[in-house]
C-alpha cells in the first residue's frame, strides 16, 4: 500500500537528530497542514477498514487528530486514550516500557462497553509499546481490538509485527525504512 501513497509521503517532513542524535523524526504536522493531503489520508485509511467498528481509539496526542477524523469518516464514536492523570472520573491504566523507563496510559472505565469493536488509531507505529498498552486497556475493559491504523510505519522497529503477533490487524499508509 505504501507506493500508492507517495503523494502523502512527500508531505511528511523529516527532522534529523530529533529528539536526540541519530534519530530521523517523521513529522506528520506538515501532512496535517495540507487540507487535501489530510483528507486523502483519512479516506485512504478508512478504506482499509472492513466492517465499521463501534469506536475508534485515538492515542494521545496526534492519535486524537487521526482518530477523530477516522471516527467521523466511519460513522462511529471516539475513545480517548490519554496519559495517566489527564482524565476526570474513574479510570483504568496500563504501564508500558519506553527506551529509558516507563509511562502509563489511561481511559475512563466506562468508555468501552464489553464486546465493543474498537479500532486503534495513531500517527505512527515504531516499537509498538504505546499501541500494545492501548490494546491491553481496551481488552481489560472487555472491548475487542479489531485493528490498528497508522499514517506511518517504521517497520525496522518492529511495532506493527508486535501488534500482529497479538492478533491485531495492522495497516499504515506510509513506510520509512530505518529509524
Automatic annotation (TrEMBL):
Enzyme Commission code: 2.4.2.7
Domain Phosphoribosyltransferase: 32-153
Protein role: Catalyzes a salvage reaction resulting in the formation of AMP, that is energically less costly than de novo synthesis.
Family: Belongs to the purine/pyrimidine phosphoribosyltransferase family.
Protein name: Adenine phosphoribosyltransferase
Organism name: Sphingomonas alba
Gene: apt
Record's keyword terms, sorted: Cytoplasm, Glycosyltransferase, Purine salvage, Transferase
Superkingdom of the source species: Bacteria
Reaction catalysis annotation: AMP + diphosphate = 5-phospho-alpha-D-ribose 1-diphosphate + adenine
Amino acid at each position: 500500500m505504501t507506493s500508492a501513497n507517495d503523494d502523502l509521503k512527500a508531505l511528511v517532513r523529516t527532522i534529523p537528530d530529533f529528539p536526540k542524535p541519530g534519530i530521523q523524526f517523521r513529522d506528520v504536522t506538515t501532512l496535517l497542514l495540507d487540507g487535501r493531503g489530510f483528507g486523502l489520508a483519512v479516506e485512504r485509511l478508512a478504506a482499509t477498514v472492513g466492517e465499521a467498528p463501534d469506536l475508534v481509539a485515538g492515542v494521545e496526542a496526534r492519535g486524537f487528530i487521526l482518530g477523530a477524523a477516522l471516527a467521523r469518516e466511519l460513522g462511529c464514536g471516539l475513545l480517548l486514550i490519554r496519559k495517566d492523570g489527564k482524565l476526570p472520573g474513574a479510570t483504568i491504566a496500563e504501564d508500558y516500557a519506553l527506551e529509558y523507563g516507563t509511562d502509563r496510559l489511561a481511559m475512563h472505565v466506562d468508555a468501552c462497553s464489553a464486546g465493543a469493536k474498537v479500532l486503534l488509531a495513531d500517527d505512527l507505529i515504531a516499537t509498538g509499546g504505546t499501541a500494545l498498552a492501548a490494546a491491553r486497556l481496551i481488552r481489560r475493559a472487555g472491548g475487542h481490538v479489531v485493528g490498528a491504523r497508522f499514517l506511518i510505519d517504521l517497520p525496522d522497529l518492529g511495532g506493527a509485527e508486535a501488534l500482529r503477533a497479538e492478533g491485531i490487524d495492522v495497516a499504515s499508509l506510509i513506510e520509512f525504512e530505518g529509524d
